Amino acid sequence: MKIRLVQPNISQKIKWSKEHMQENLMKLKKYSVKDLDTSNPPNIIVWPEVAIPFFLNKEEDLKKYILANIPLKTYLITGALRYEKVGNDYKIFNSLYLLKQNEIVAYYDKVRLVPFGEFMPFSGILKLKKLTEGRKDFSSGTGRKELFIKDFKERIISFEPSICYEGIFPEKKLTFLNPNLLINITNDAWFGRTTGPKQHQIANMFRAIERGLPLVRVSNSGISNIIDINGKIMANLPLNEEGYKEIEIRLGSGETFYSKFGLYSLVYLIIFLFLFCLSLDIFLLKKKLKNFL
Questions:
Q1: Class assignment of domain 2-261?
Q2: 28-42: per-residue pLDDT in tens?
């Protein structure tokens, strides 16, 4: 499977600005098709978290515009906002969209929200505003799930999406998911020139090793990369640079001890080590008694 990562490196100062909307979109579109082999296009093009800071499910013209130059066979994965009417109120979500041929194929709503950034804990008591754009808190999604695509041979391939720091959490048990690929979109521009982006990247690498699955990670300002099932970086876009990377990857089976038992595998390991040490002590004790007698 061929995948293209797009890292626009858009400053936080202009990311949410309507005045810079056209400029930001043009940068994303430019790296989506730059040096593109139309006879052998990528299966998936991936943009970062909230690359589109608008309600994409309510913006038909915008959706058509961003897909205008994307090959018809190719899926686009992008972060954007999602609007949902609930009675007389509404909810907003930080979402990952799967798009193809002017259609929203599927979406995933972020489940683990960032306190103070995406929602205000105890907002009714503290009377404080969240640190990010918009007055309303984001709502949490209903749960982790798989999204599905078809490759050029019509084979069904599934991937498990995550947004931002969701990728650093090892799950307790994920036997209900059986993906071929992990995809994480994020925006680490908040960290600035600190060790934050590097630490965030390293924490994500463990998910690939645990699950026996390749990990595609795309960040607004870096670090973006593709990591194989052994934790090796196959493609990389450095911090605070704009550009793209396109690479063929081998999908994983996800058949590891950890993928079957999750964090419970740690419990089994502790029990095994305890029994091993106990049996070793008994063996050594018997040996000493035998020599003594």
A1: alpha beta
A2: 999 999 999 989 999
